[in-house]
């Protein structure tokens, strides 16, 4: 076999000149790929879990169109996040792929062994599942509906207590006294949240990104 010819025809950047190194890479390349898949799967699994949690009636932070949810066999009002539950399950399975590959190749001596053909039946379906999860999330996340009035619910009033406490401190009240004052008001049920807040400090929700700041500074200059 003309190895230079096959290298070019297969679109590889260069040839692996040492044939022993080429042979010994069997399983290693798949394992490196598996770790990449597992890392992406960990992120997608967490995202899917958050979606399932935040779609529930207890949270109601987000929702999706009916086409991306399923009904219940007995409760007609339910909108089950089946798509995201399956993504979560598949991605949890994908995180086991590196370990599966390790158990196949870790005790093989140098050279080729038929054990290595089992690597393909692990990594090829894993790549297909990863692509499917990415495709459905890319498609579905464009349809997400955020409940942007959720903080109007009185049960979230205490989320604003820190902002009120910070205002007291910035006005000159010692933090210890401001903390006690807030605790007394909350326990007495007299705390009234200020919802018209605007955070601009670094890392806060609603703050200006660096590019926006840079653009504004350029305009001022």
SSE order and pairing:
Elements: H1 3-9, H2 19-24, H3 28-55, E1 62-63, H4 82-94, H5 97-105, H6 117-141, E2 145-146, H7 161-170, H8 175-188, H9 210-220
Helix pairs in contact: 3-4, 3-5, 3-6, 4-6, 5-6, 7-8
> Mean pLDDT score, rounded?
89
What series of H and E elements makes up the topology? Answer: HHHEHHHEHHH
- The main sheet orders its strands as 1-2
The value of Rg in angstroms is 27 Å
Estimated helix fraction: 55-70%
CATH class of the largest domain: Mainly Alpha
Largest sheet: 2 strands, antiparallel
**What is the total tally of β strands?**
2
In total, the number of domains comes to 2
Shape: elongated
CATH topology of the largest domain: Fumarase C, Chain A, domain 2
CATH superfamily membership of the largest domain: Fumarase/aspartase (Central domain)
Calculate the terminal CA-CA distance, rounded to whole Å.
Answer: 66 Å
Q: Strand pairing plus helix content: what structural class?
A: mainly alpha
Question: Can you tell me the CATH architecture of the largest domain?
Answer: Up-down Bundle
Low-pLDDT segments? none
- What is the overall number of helices? 9
- The percentage of residues in β strands lies in under 5%
């Amino acid at each position: 076999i003309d190895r230079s010819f096959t290298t070019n025809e297969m679109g590889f950047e260069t040839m692996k000149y040492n044939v022993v190194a080429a042979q010994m890479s069997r399983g290693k390349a798949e394992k490196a790929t598996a770790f990449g898949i597992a890392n992406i799967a960990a992120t997608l699994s967490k995202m899917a879990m958050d979606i399932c949690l935040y779609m529930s009636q207890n949270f109601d932070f987000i929702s999706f169109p009916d086409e991306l949810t399923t009904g219940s066999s007995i409760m007609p009002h339910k909108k089950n996040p089946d798509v995201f539950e399956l993504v979560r399950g598949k991605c949890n399975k994908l995180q086991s792929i590196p370990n599966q590959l390790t158990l196949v190749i870790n005790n093989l001596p140098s050279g080729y062994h038929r054990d290595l053909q089992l690597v393909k039946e692990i990594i090829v379906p894993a790549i297909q599942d990863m692509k499917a999860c990415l495709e459905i999330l890319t498609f579905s996340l464009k349809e997400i509906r955020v409940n942007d009035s959720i903080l109007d619910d009185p049960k979230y009033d205490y989320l604003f207590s820190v902002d009120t406490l910070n205002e007291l401190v910035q006005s000159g009240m010692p933090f210890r006294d401001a903390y006690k004052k807030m605790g007394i008001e909350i326990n007495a049920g007299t705390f009234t949240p200020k919802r018209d807040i605007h955070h601009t400090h670094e890392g806060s929700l609603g703050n200006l990104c660096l590019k926006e700041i840079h653009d504004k500074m350029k305009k001022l200059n």
